[in-house]
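note to self: dont lose this again. the chain is below, predicted strucutre after it. 265 aa total, dont forget to put it in the shared folder this time
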Amino acid sequence: MAAKRLARIAGLVALAALAMAGAASAALPVLAPESLCSAETGRYESRYGIPPQLLDAISIVESGRWDDVRRATIAWPWTVTAAGQGKYFPTKADAVAEVKRLRAAGVRNIDVGCMQVNLQYHPDAFSSLEEAFDPAANVAYAARFLKGLFQATNHWPTAASYYHSQTPKLAAEYRDRLMKVWSGASGRTELASAVSPRSTLDPLRRPARDAVAGHTSPSSDDVAGREEARRIADAYRQARLAEYRLRRARMVETRRALGLSLNGY
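---
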């Protein structure tokens, strides 16, 4: 009898927990796909000390599509770009399937999600394609990457242009386009020259004090942060190396077409 009573109590507790979970989930707003990217960019701007609406502006430039209802361009979370062609998919599952199809066809240079994170240059950014298309994970990684670029430049517009490319011409074109979106969103033209002090919110450079030993010792968060910083730096170097190789190949082709010597190249 005691065992039956305990089983009945356990069943009632489980039902109560399910009911509470259902009520909690019902209370949470379900965002439409067109609102997912902007919700996350706002959250991570605050978390990483990024100027208001800069990350949002980048997302619009990267994955923006026209919304007839809102009469505005909005970032779309299920965006896939390969070979210079961007596609917008109605669902996350469709976007994941497209990346799998591209990879099966041998395509590796693929940008995904709200922030169009490149899977070739950032191979360790996400644990799976499902995570890559999760707006929170996609925006969080892009925010950390952008913050790392700012730490190297101490200038937000420059960091934002390097988010796209370090090739001077491509970076300049991207920056011009981005500044129009950012200034339009903020209503403040002075943002184009914004310089911000280094934020103390950055988890990649957060020291941990060992009170017992009296010296600085890394916590698990610090170790994970430094590991991610290393991966971001590696991805950054790989992207720059790829751009250099592309510029060099184009220069060689041009000189060959003109019948010029290749000495020094």
